[in-house]
Each structure stands twice: as structure tokens, then as C-alpha cells.
Amino acid sequence: MPFYVRQGNIPPKRHTQHRDREGKLYHEQLVSRAGFSGIYTNMYHLRPPTRISGVGDFKPIKYESVTDQPHRNRHLETLKFKPSGNWISGRQLLAFNSDVALFTAAPKEQGEFLYRNGIGDELIFVHHGKGQLVSIFGNMPYGPGDYIVIPRGVMYRLTLEADDTRLLIMESAGMIDTPQRYRNDYGQLLEHSPYCERDIRIPEIQEPRDEEGEFLFLLKLGNGIQELTFAHHPFDIVGWDGFYYPWIFNIKDFMPIVGKVHQPPPVHQTFEAPGFVICSFCPRLFDFHELAIPTPYNHRNIDSDEVLYYVEGNFMSRKGVSEGSITIHPHGISHGPHPGRYEAAIGETKTEEYAVMLDTFKPLKIGRAALEIDDSKYPYSWME
Q1: pLDDT, tens digit, for every residue of 129-166?
Q2: Cα–Cα nearest to 216, from 111, 139, 136, 120
Q3: Which one, of 275, 265, 244, lies nearest residue 335 by Cα?
Q4: Residue 273's beta-bridge partner residues?
Q5: What does the pLDDT look like over 70-114, one tens digit per residue?
Q6: How many domains is the chain built from?
């Protein structure tokens, strides 16, 4: 996680008595990774965080792949999905493997519940829309271009403040983090990293919710979603401290690394997780060698599948893609610039594009929803 944070009312020492002015004891809760050996945060509640008053329905979920489809390059036009559901039920599964699942969502409803992903970290990229991430740690406003990092087990909800919300969502089996090579031995982002702690936004603690009642809570599990009910509002935090909390980084705060000749995708890396990386392609100056060719060279993925989500701008190496397009270039098949783009880029000095890239190290399975928006002609788009 980015850094240590302390907010609100906490005692001088952990695991000691902490009382309000009337002498009533607050209830401590630890949330941690890797048992008790990873990063953690301590929280202090008005009431015990264990007061479940109801166990409701269990909704099975199965990540279904399409097994009878050819292995080929794909172009998915996600803006063809009409708004539906809320920020959970409206998610459309496009591709997945054992490390990561890729969704888009265009929610049209608020979703009056609290949510916790119990099986994975979530990275939500906000393409369109704005609102608030309301979490047990506090609130964060979000808007276009924001990467919202929500670690596993964090209870939250999204409040939508715009009609046209479009989200790209990645669910990770492992922890989503800043790339290790950008950090020093103490976890601080290095001087030459493409962003730093100043660019990271964190929750602001709110007044504790001192409310009894019935509060619906959805818990995501490996095989479905369990409905539970709290007997009090769980956001009754008076203080917390630690390294474990949601945070936001905006793609426009990424500072691209450029070179004398074309730089490979790792220079655009923004996050890492077990089994995949996430990169940000942002406006930047092109290569400055006198014979440089700015477009990417043709390449063939041996160990990874490459997914690119086009956010805005005119992507220099592609024809026929537009805002909201996703290209999936699977392992074993060469890809590169479309005809004419290789030569046309010579002499260009900069690009104004934004795109998000997901590179996986295991093959992706294609979800059924992807077939609804698949451009079947895309594999032939490299023909002269």
C-alpha cells in the first residue's frame, strides 16, 4: 500500500482500553493480509463489528467462458452495452483467468447496500461519471480517469452523481500494488518513478454512524454473493490507522517515460498484482532518434495475453477502434500497427491518447458477454 495513515480518535497503544468521554469502551478491529504477517489497519468502532442480525439469500455466480470460439484477436465495443443494474449487478464479464477477471459496467441504479469483495482486490477505472466512494474508512470523491483501488475485504458502496457512468473493473485474486521496481527498501516511491505519493488520494474519515436498524450487506464469495444484515450501521468508526485502506490515483497524473527509440510497455506500468500488470498510456513526446519509428513494432505474445481499453484520443497504431473499445490480443498470435500506421507515424512528435492496458501471464478465457459486442472482422484488419 502507499503509506501509513492515521485518522480520527485512536489510543496511544494498540490492543489497550480505548473509551469515550462517558467511559464506554470502543471496540477494536484488525484487518490484515497474510494472516497477521502482512500489512494491516486497526479500527475502533462504537459497537462490535460482529452484530449480524440476519442471513439472507445466497445468489450463485459462475464465471462462464465460451469454449467453442476460435483463438483469435478480438475487438469489443463496450459502449454498445446499454446501462443496466447497479455498480455490482450491472457488471459484464468479458474475460478472466485464475488471477484476474475483467468487467465493464454502465450502472443506471444506485444500489442501496454495502458491499465487500471477500475473494479479491478490485481496481475500478472510471471512464465516465463521478460520485463518491463511501467506505468504512471514509469517503473519496471520484471522477473521470480515476483508478480506484479497493483491497479485498474493504466494505464500501458507490454513490453515483452522473447519469452516464462507464466503469472498467478488474478483480484480482492477489493484492494490487504499486510496482516493486518503483519503490525503495522502505516502500517509498522512487525519485524516478512515474508518479509519487503526492498523486495518491486517500479516504477522509467521517462522523461515526451511530444508528441501530437493518443494514443490507453483500459479501462476494468464490461461488456467489451472500446477503447479510447488520443490526447497526457498520460505518461507526471513530478512528483508524495503518497501511490498509482504499485509495485513488488518476491516469492524468501518470508521468510517461520516453526514450530515444520506442519504449516497450513496461515503462507505462502503473500497478502490479500476481499474474498480471496494468499500464497507462498517456499523452507523451515520441522518440527522438533521427530515424525513430514511433509506432510499436510487430510482436507476438509468448507468455501473456494483451488487453487494451481505449479511453480517449486517436490511438496511433490502430484503425477502427474508438472510445470504449477493448482489444484482446491473445498469446501465440502476432499483432502490431495496422497497415499504413507504421509509415505514417514517422516524423510525428507526440501523441494525445489515453488507454489502459492489462497484460496477463496466463491465457484469458472469453466471457459470454463479450460475444454480444465482438467485432468479427477485427482479425482481418491487418490485411493491406
Answers
A1: 999 999 999 999 999 999 999 999 999 999 999 889 99
A2: 111
A3: 265
A4: 276
A5: 999 999 999 999 999 999 999 999 999 999 999 999 999 999 999
A6: 2
167 burial (CB, 10 Å; 0-12 / 13-18 / 19+) is buried
Measured in degrees and rounded to the nearest 5, phi and psi for residue 200 equal -95, 130
Q: C-alpha distances in angstroms, 1 versus 34, 73, 236, 311?
A: 14, 35, 24, 26
- Written as one string, the DSSP assignment of 6-32 is EEE---SSTTS--B-TT-PBPEEEEEE
* Spacing of C-alpha 6 from chain mean position: 24
Are residues 368 and 301 both part of a single domain? yes
The CATH number of residue 155's host domain is: 2.60.120.10
DSSP secondary structure code for residue 239 in this structure: E
Burial class (CB in 10 A: 0-12, 13-18, 19+), 35: exposed
Q: Are 354 and 311 in contact (CB under 8 A)?
A: yes
Residue 192's domain comprises 53-64+82-205+245-250
Strand partners, 249: 147
Look at the alpha carbons of 178, 184, 187, 188 in this order and tell me if their dihedral is positive or negative: negative
Question: Measured over all CA atoms, what is the biggest interatomic distance in the chain, rounded to whole angstroms?
Answer: 79
CB-based contact 99:172 (threshold 8 Å): yes
User: Cell match 493491406: residue?
Assistant: 384
Q: List C-alpha distances in Å: 87 to 134, 156, 211, 214.
A: 13, 11, 25, 21
Tell me: do 262 and 174 sit in the same domain: no
- C-alpha dist (Å) from residue 279 to 2, 112, 150, 216: 18, 33, 18, 36
Angle at 51 (CA atoms; ends 228, 49), nearest 5 degrees: 100
Residues 113 and 201 in one domain: yes
Task: Render 151-171 in DSSP notation, one character per residue.
Answer: -TT-EEEEEE-SS--EEEEEE
Mean pLDDT score of the chain: 94
Q: What pLDDT score was predicted for residue 46?
A: 98
Which has the closest alpha carbon to 273: 122, 156, 118, 145?
122
Q: Which of 336, 270, 292, 303 is nearest to 125 (CA)?
A: 270
- 38, 32 contact by CB (below 8 A): yes
Whether the full predicted model's pTM is greater than 0.85, yes or no, is yes
